[in-house]
Amino acid sequence: MRALSANLRAGVLRSDAVRHALTKGEMREEDLAAALAPHLPQRMSLSSGVVINDRGEESGQQDLLIVDSDVSPAFVTAGRLGVHPVESVLAAIEVKSTLTSALVEDAVERGASGAETSSRALFRAFVRANQALPEMDRTNALFVVDQFTTA
């Protein structure tokens, strides 16, 4: 885990010099994907895109998705981008470079639209706790992982 942490930290430091926000974010997403990929079973893969349920409802754009194509392949793909059935999505990961309550709420909304209010309350509590810390101890990168489930 220390090596994984060191690789992620090096990626963040490398991308700090990039001023373009979208490019910086995409670099950090790629760094996280590269760090996670060796730890996933072969049947799982990393993707980016949207998740669709059996009613045709789509999630917002997800930075990273851990998908199990043995369950169901993506409906549409273009490189690492895809439209995935919810049944094949094991986790959605939103990568954010700064931690603000607005970004956390947006990440929760994108990944867990329709989720219980308690998950939003949990993230708000996390943001408040983070803001109470001395600046040097605050979290400055957030990976929100929300597991998709079907009823």
Plain-language structure description:
α1 (2-15) packs antiparallel against α2 (21-36) and α3 (101-111) runs antiparallel to α4 (117-132). The model is unreliable at 113-119 and 144-151 (pLDDT under 50). The chain has helices at 2-15, 21-36, 101-111, 117-132, and strands at 44-52, 62-68, 76-78, 81-85, 89-96, 142-146. A 6-stranded mixed β-sheet has the order 3-4-1-2-5-6. It has 2 domains: 1-39; 40-146, no CATH class. With 151 residues, it is of the alpha+beta class.
Task: List the defining traits of the structure above.
151 residues; alpha+beta
Strand order of the largest sheet: 3-4-1-2-5-6
Order of helices and strands: HHEEEEEHHE
Radius of gyration from the alpha-carbon trace, in angstroms = 16 Å
**Strand residue content:** 15-25%
Major β-sheet profile: 6 strands, mixed
Task: Tell me the domain tally.
Answer: 2
